Structures are given as structure tokens and as C-alpha cells.
Amino acid sequence: MRKTSIITVILLMASLVARADEGMWLPSLISQRIADMQEKGFRLEAEDIYSINQASLKDAVVLFGRGCTGELISPEGLLLTNHHCGYSQIQQHSSVEHDYLKDGFWAMSREEELPNKGLTVSFLERMEDVTDQILRGYDPAMSEAERAELVKKNSQAVIEEATKEGKGLRATVEALYYGNQYFLFLYRQYEDVRLVGAPPSSIGKFGGDTDNWMWPRHTGDFSMFRIYADKENNPAPYSEDNVPYRPKKYFKISLKGVQEGDFTFIYGFPGRTQEYIHSEGVRYIEETGDPHKIHLRTLRLDIMNRHQAQSQKVRIQYSSKNANVSNAWKKWQGEVKGIRKMKTVQTKQEFEKAFDRWAKGGEFDGVVGKIAKIYEELEPYQFATDYYAETVRTVELANFAMSMARLFVKAEDGTVTFDKAKADELASTFYKDWYLPIDKESFIAVMNEYEKNVPAEFKPAYYKDKLAAYGSINAWAEDMFTNSLFADPEKVGSLTETDREAVMSDPATGFFNEFLKWYAADIQPVTARLNQELQLAYRDYMRGQMVYCRTQRVMKDFYPDANLTLRVAYGHIKGYSPADGVYYTPSSTMKGIMEKDNPEIFDYNIPQRLRDIYATKDYGRWADATGEVPVCFIATNHTTGGNSGSPVINADGDLIGLNFDRVWEGTMSDIVFDPDICRNISLDVRYVLFTIDKIGEADYLLEEMTFTE
Ligand code: ARG
Ligand code: ASP
User: Fold this and answer.
1) How far away, in angstroms, is 83 Cα from ligand 1 center?
2) In terms of pTM, does the model score above 0.90?
């Protein structure tokens, strides 16, 4: 039997198992889950979720930009996503005169909607199992590199064929289950997407990084866009002649509200999970990778926070940088805690032992041990890579120096050209948000950790020589941040093509470049080779896990790891207990915003208008049965990064919310899902509507929406 059919057969059998709300399911195979969904309350059919014959819910969901989800909420191309997903667009349109981040933005007519260069949205036209085509010509005697070459070649042919007809078609072929299966994803991509509205950050980012990954939550994390198309409704570059896109399907909005236990369904683009990895992979993350990365980021965040607290200017300069550093920092803490609590390493070891016993003498004999061996070899290289990424690569001055150095091009005859215009642009962006004391103190902090924790044989000779010459990291920092020409905007402003030598020998450029050369020569080739070996072994182990669980009657369902393709996750509204003696209820209201409100604390300083509305209880039609305006809710849907902006759908297929986060205690769900703790956090759609209506006073937008009650 071919491998394709084995996977299909296993999946069909596995679908008989019903269990907790874990899983990110492929929409085209949702008929295998629909009975379970219906049992849990869903009232629609598989064809309503995904169909290539009729309009279905998938036609109302888009991949927004490069890593978020959005959904259509009107017949005129109106789209809803998160504030943090539209953040860079909102920021790009902001200036001192029009600070849309701070004050919010509402187009009061179609003419006022703002175009966005580079922003695209993609609709999934269809998806299809193309394993046979992709592996045509495959011979088990092939090396992994040869196989990869073949897969690439065959994928190109499949993509070309699929995108032949129709405007704006874009296709990808994605490996599922470590390359046991390949799927074609055909998208229609629109590139005229205009900003329609965003609440002020004091609503859209309420709670900031303090509340990020936390429950109870009160963030109004949404923004609105409109998709434009040519007169035939096809994708077209921005043009004044374009008209609002007419979707095949858009979500109707339910105002009924949510109750604990209600069925919820998330439709979106989760980015990356690793649910089937070997215990050794988990052990590295839990014991080594995450703890070191967390520690390095704690050092940097302490430095940033201290300086940001001292100066309003620095606070603004580092707000986005701080958010980026702290987002994963907080996530990893929950991940480690969750993996420990779940005893994932131990559980996996036990599974592997039983698997190994079962596998003796068969196709999967030895694969568990093989993976362990590869991890053993990989670990020091992975550690060196993690340190390189979280130390050397975080030095802002060195990054800037290197990107400037790249603007000097030396031709074969020795003549040098220098892109002055690009250099000026880079320099103005860099200096606007750079504060030397933060960068320098961070350099000292992280490089001292580097010195202490990275074994000598995983450090470049350049580093060891320099450190010996300087005598200490401090002295190194002193030289670099005092003598680098890049520390001086004036010197950078007067650079010309004759300065190539000075730029290349600059201490900041040297630091970046020498480490980069070492990484490319000594580390990357080894990790690339080992990861390829790992990939190959995992392909067998993945298939082995499926066969084992099926034949040994281990109750386990399989769903492919997330890879930024469209998925369905279903579950229900539910509170949780993060610690002994504590229980969190599943929804929050405006009352909680008022409890947090504090004009002295940046993250909790709400617009005066919101206070006034609360005082007069002028909620319009947006209050719930208790008279409060609902804000957020949590549920058991299995989501990850990329699911931000995903529609939250009720049992009737109507929109009840907008997914934007998870609770930090449950972020190990990228590796192991705990139904007791893992919760996704969503914005209640009624708070979105309240904000549009009462804060934005853009209630004309409500007229194009359809409400179910
Ligand atoms: N934690 C959410 C996610 O991973 C939201 C991040 C944006 N918000 C923030 N305060 N940094 O994307
Ligand atoms: N906040 C994440 C995102 O932006 C979602 C998550 O990790 O749960 O996609």
C-alpha cells in the first residue's frame, strides 16, 4: 500500500475517536469531525464550513498580511482583524498631527479610507491532497536532499498548473505530518486593502504588555479594513477606480452573547505547533532553550523598562521593541511551566518506550533511538544558535552597522558604489528609535552571559581574541559605543563611497560580521544537516505513531501540526483554575476596565469618553442581560500565533467574537494541550460594535452589517 493511502486510512479510523477540544483540523476533511462538532452543539453541516461547490464560511476568512487572520463582515468587503495585526498600518498613517495610534482613526466615508502599500489578504479558493503528484518519481534509495529537490520540482509544476487561470491566484504546496502528506493551497490574493477604523491604543492595546497573555483581560484588540477589487471583483493593485470587494460569503453577527458551555469554533491561520516531537526535543525546550532565552530577555527588559520609566521620549522609542521582546518572553514562561506541570517529557518517554518495544523488527524499529541520537548531536549547536540569536543579533548598533555596510557595493574592477538615499532612510529610521544607553547596557548584560554560558568550542576565534585584547566585555562595549562611527548620526550622515574601508573595519560592523561568518561556516551547516536528518526520521516516527496508536488501540486523534494554513478549532466557552484556590470565570465586562482604569499608569489610562459613558451607562444596544458591556471571553479552542484576528463563530455559524490571545499558563499548547488550562482569549463582538458606535461615532458602518437578532 502507498504511504498516502496509509495516512488517509489511519485518519479515517482515528476520526471515530471523540475527545477533548484539542486539535487544528483541515477544513477540507472536516466531514471527519462534523459528527463530533454537532454532538458538541454545532448546528451546521461540513459543506457550510468548507465547500468548493457553493459559498461556505471559508470564503469569509482571510490570511491577513503575513501572519494574522481576518474575516469579512459585510457584503461590501468590510474586514475585521486585531489592532495588533493592523498596528504597523495604523502606525504608518500616524504623525504628530494625526496620531491614529493614540487617538484612533475612523474613516467617515469611503473616500477617507487609507490605502496600505504591501498589505495583502488571501482567500483560500481550495485545498487538495497532492501527495501522489509531489512524490512522483520518488525512490526510497534517494537521499533526503535528493528527495527535497524532487519535492521542490514537482511542487513547482503543481503550483504552475493551479495558478494558470484567474487573476491574483497564488498557490503553495505544504508538507503535512513531516512530509507524509502534501497539500496544495490555492489562494486568491487581494492587494488593495484600506484602513477603515481603529480604536485609540488606550482601548485597542488596553493593558499593554502588563495584561498581554493574561486573563482577566479587557483589551479592545480590533481594527477594520476594507478590501477593494476591480470592476469585475478581481484582485487589482490600488486604484481610485477600484470598488469595494463583494465577498462570496460574510459573517452575520450575533448579539445574543455567550454563556459558559456554549459551542465555539475558530476559523483561521495558526502558524506553528510541534505536537508530535520526541521527548528529547521537549526536554531541550523545557530545561535549556526556554530558560536561557527567558533569562537573557529578562536582562534586556529590565534595562529597557528602567530607562523607559525615566523618560517619556524613551518610552515611546522603545514601546514597540519592548512589546516584541516581551511577547515571546512571557509566552515561554507559561510554556515551561505548562510542560513541567503536564510532565510532558516523562509522558513522552513512556510512550516512546512502549512504541519502541512494539516497533522491534518492523518498519519503525529504532526510529525513536535514532531521533534521540540526532538531538544529542544537535543540542550544543542549537544552544550556540539560541545564544547567538538572543545576544549578538540583538545589538541594535551592530545590526544597523551591518545594514549600512551592505549598501556599499564593490564591483569587480574595484569601484565602490554607495546607496546614499537608502542610507539616509535607514539612518533616520534607526536614530528615531535608538537610545544608546539601553543598547550599550544590554550589550554588556547579554555578552557577559554569553561569556559565562557558551562553551569555548562554540565561540568564534574572533570573539576570544577580542575579549582577550579588551580585557572585559565592559571595555569592549566602551570602545564600540564610543568609537563606532555608527554611534554618531553626523558621521553617518556624511558617509560617501570612499568610506567603505572605515565602515568595514568599524568595531560595530566587525562584531556583527565576524560572528555572522563564524555562524555561517561553523554552526549553520551542521544544524542544517542535522535538521534534515531529523526531518527524515520524524517522517517515519510520525507515521509510526499513527500506526501504533491505531493498531494498539491508543485513543489518540491526529491532526497535522500548524503551518499557517487554514484550520478549524472547536471547543466551548469555559473558565479555568490557574492555581489552587483560584477560579476564573469565562467573561469580562466594562466594569473590569473601570477597576483597572488609572490615569497614572500608561497601560491603564483609558479615554475620558469611556469614563463618561460608563458614568451615564449610555451603552445603547450593546449591554448584556446584566446591564454591563461585555468585553472579552475565554474558551477551550486550540489556537496559536497566527490565529490572531480569527473569527469566533457560534453553533449557528454567526460571529460572536474575535480571537487575539491565549492565557500564558496554557501556552504549552504549541507542544502539549491541557484541556484544563489551555484557553484562547477573544474579544466579544459586542464590545467591537460598542466601540465603533460610542467611541468612534462611526455607526454608519453598522448599517452594512447583518445582525441575527
Ligand atoms: N500575545 C498576543 C500574540 O502573541 C498579542 C501580542 C500583541 N500584544 C502585546 N501587548 N504585545 O500575538
Ligand atoms: N497573539 C497571537 C497572535 O498574534 C495568538 C496566540 O499566540 O494565541 O496570533
Assistant:
1) 10
2) yes
